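FAQ: What does the model actually see?

It sees only this:
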Amino acid sequence: MIRSYGLHWRASRVAWGRPNVAGTLLGSASRSSRAQPVDFRTQRGIYALYSEYELVYLGQTGARNDRLFDRLKTHRVDHLSERWDRFSWFGTQWVTQQHRLSADNAAVHETVEATLNMLEAVSVAIAEPRLNLQRGRWGDTTQYYQWWERAEDEQED
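And it is asked to produce this:
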């Protein structure tokens, strides 16, 4: 069901693009600045918007032609524009060996147990209830960390 996800990415680190220049929504499977980035711009799934880590909005993307990047970019100019600074996303597409998103029409076949584990994991990740000590059973889902072009003084040795 959920194949990849990112938690609490900063809106300020997204390359939103400009006229005639497409933006990117980059993440990598490790926190290293040398990691191979993946563009999650066309991801399908659900997302959460936060203001200083407080949940302020939940949405979905991909049921039609809209995708994650488009929905987030819309929220930068709609009634939510000044109300969020971070976001988490939970996507149905996995990353291929070529560091690209899988086809967005891949079938989802999960057991009831795996589905319930995934729903619980996503719910706990979004809401972060203070009494939940367990962080969820993600199965073979991969977490991706936000990737951005770092200034030279931010580079890792």
